[in-house]
Amino acid sequence: MFHYLKCKELLAGVNGVGRCLCDFSRDYLKEKYSIVAQFISVGSHSKNMVTQNGNGKIDADYNGILISYPSDFVEKDLKCAFMDSFNRVLKELYGITKGCRDSTSAITIPTLHFYDDPSIEFSFDIGIILTVRSGNKGRLIHDKIRGTYYFSEIPNSKDVDLREKEIKDSGLWNEVRDLYLDKKNMYLRRGDNNHPSYICRIESINEVYQKYFK
Length: 214
Prior knowledge:
single chain, 10 strands, 214 residues, alpha+beta
């Protein structure tokens, strides 16, 4: 079952690697593909929400928020460009030649570990996000059965950042953290792979917001 990672030094180390990967990938995306993206952690290190499944891998997630990209790029082109950028950075910075995995709703980085302690393993899922016409967020999905790529709209995600701030300002963030962990474990027990960390975070924020502000 998932639990929160409490060691501050370990949190900082994992976040440092994730931030490095994302920063270099962001620059490569802009240079080679004219894709402008901003990478943010999914409520993870900055919000003390990095999780670990038992004694297994540490789980930290990032989103690549699309700001602009060439008009002739379709969804598959975007996924391939992001994967190419992370594969290049992994090889150049860490000598890792094993490529990223094209997961259904993310790019999964190969398992990493610290040089001074190989027993500590961690990985990242990188979601690709943009704002759809309704104002909600859309997450890039690869439907492997149909062989199609598309942006799936995330319900009630339009005002999630404002709601998060209001919850924090009211001293209620711990309720979000508790609910987030409960949801991750609930979906884990169900074998549900359609609710990644980002979705769990949005669901948790919206439920706490509805409880206290509606």
